[in-house]
Amino acid sequence: MAEQKMLKFVNVDRDMPEKRVPNLRTSDFDEIYQQFAAEKAAEQSSRCSQCGVPFCQDHCPLHNNIPDWLKLTAEGRLQEAYEVSQATNQFPEICGRICPQDRLCEGNCVIEQSGHGTVTIGAVEKYITDTAWEQGWVQPIKPYAERSESVGIIGAGPAGLAAADVLRRAGVQVTIYDRYDRAGGLLTYGIPGFKLEKEVVERRNGQLAEGGVTFKLDCDVGKDVSFEELRKTHDAILIGTGVYKSRDLGGPGAGLNGIVKAIDYLTASNRHNFGDAVPEIDSGELWAEGKNVVVIGGGDTAMDCVRTAIRQGATSVKCLYRRDRQNMPGSLRETANAEEEGVEFVWLSAPKGFAGDDKVTGVYVQQMRLGAPDVTGRQAPEEIPGAEYLEKADLVIKALGFEPEELPTLWDTPELEVTRWGTVKADFVSKRTAMDGVYAAGDIVRGASLVVWAIADGRDAAGSILADLNAKSAIAAE
């Protein structure tokens, strides 16, 4: 009788890849998780219950066929596992590293609900695709036939890159325009290397370039080229700019030196790790070494900031968040990693203002409590009267989230419709805007969200673009 390869969750415990010890991993920006060995990946995959209604798949924005590639991994059929994984996701090795699996696939695993501990889906996903690259299973992009139509994509983040991959495989001519000097968007300049080593992103960018995608970098639409000019150049336009405008924070002393935006801080750190010259780091403005650092916010960007500050040699790193641990929006896994590395979380606290003459010396902290639920159902934080204190700070990093830039104004295109939140108004299924031949995908439509949602949106937009191009070709042929 053949050995049962699956449903081993009863007698095989959940096991994550080993993490490098904190005092070693905080000395560099390398990824903290070790790679699974083949035997361990197969063992952990074999814990999957192969349930009839896979909640892991249902709660994945890409609807990845997780049970099938777990089964293939358990059976040692890794190349087939990679092909199943790649069929629904352009960048599985990236999602395996940075998706908040605890809130998505793993958080909805059936065996987790039964008390056996979830399957380590993300770690296996990363292992499958890293192995595929090592073994040469990742094939170059080679369309069966070239098409004459061209698509211009504004933004080289995950939405734009995913759409470019789908379109290029269909033979469409694709040009990506991006304001930065490297492609990847927040994958390159926002997310630190200890979560996503940059070689992983550059490898995918290289695959797209070798497959015929044209990258026009250091190209700021609205300045270097007009939106209208791009519409005349291409048969379709996809807007995938993301949201880069930082939410600000007022209060007394908010304009003091030493109070910086998270995106500026993380971009400078990533540039420094690329070996670029970064004057703001050389001057110490965006460098945490020897400083008491306070990060304001509780999302994944705040986690990136506190862990970066630790690696830069900060004297102390504290994170202020106005709610408690259970109500924070960031990944619980990332919070645990940060605490292991020496970050102190100050729950139920909010900034009231900042001390200092020219440069910040402290944050006035208002202690909070949770009151009645707000419109979202979360308990609303409220001030505790008289409960204030001064927290010493030499560097304050504002990680309060992001908002869309005013694209109609920046691009001199008032006919581009936006919502009351400033996001581009597009159909949530087709990604079509009201402008003929113009589509939008990712954070610029849904607001600041997850990389995996941007990839899903980019794939959907590419599908709509192809359908519309095919319809136009059919009409022209009549």
From TrEMBL:
<dbReference type="Pfam" id="PF14691">
    <property type="entry name" value="Fer4_20"/>
</dbReference>
<protein>
    <submittedName>
        <fullName>Dihydropyrimidine dehydrogenase subunit A</fullName>
    </submittedName>
</protein>
<keyword id="KW-0004">4Fe-4S</keyword>
<keyword id="KW-0411">Iron-sulfur</keyword>
<dbReference type="GO" id="GO:0046872">
    <property type="term" value="F:metal ion binding"/>
</dbReference>
<keyword id="KW-0560">Oxidoreductase</keyword>
<dbReference type="GO" id="GO:0016491">
    <property type="term" value="F:oxidoreductase activity"/>
</dbReference>
<dbReference type="InterPro" id="IPR028261">
    <property type="entry name" value="DPD_II"/>
</dbReference>
<feature type="domain" description="FAD/NAD(P)-binding">
    <location>
        <begin position="151"/>
        <end position="458"/>
    </location>
</feature>
<keyword id="KW-0408">Iron</keyword>
<dbReference type="InterPro" id="IPR006006">
    <property type="entry name" value="GltD-like"/>
</dbReference>
<dbReference type="InterPro" id="IPR036188">
    <property type="entry name" value="FAD/NAD-bd_sf"/>
</dbReference>
<keyword id="KW-0479">Metal-binding</keyword>
<feature type="domain" description="Dihydroprymidine dehydrogenase">
    <location>
        <begin position="26"/>
        <end position="136"/>
    </location>
</feature>
<dbReference type="InterPro" id="IPR023753">
    <property type="entry name" value="FAD/NAD-binding_dom"/>
</dbReference>
<dbReference type="Pfam" id="PF07992">
    <property type="entry name" value="Pyr_redox_2"/>
</dbReference>
<dbReference type="InterPro" id="IPR009051">
    <property type="entry name" value="Helical_ferredxn"/>
</dbReference>
<dbReference type="GO" id="GO:0051539">
    <property type="term" value="F:4 iron, 4 sulfur cluster binding"/>
</dbReference>
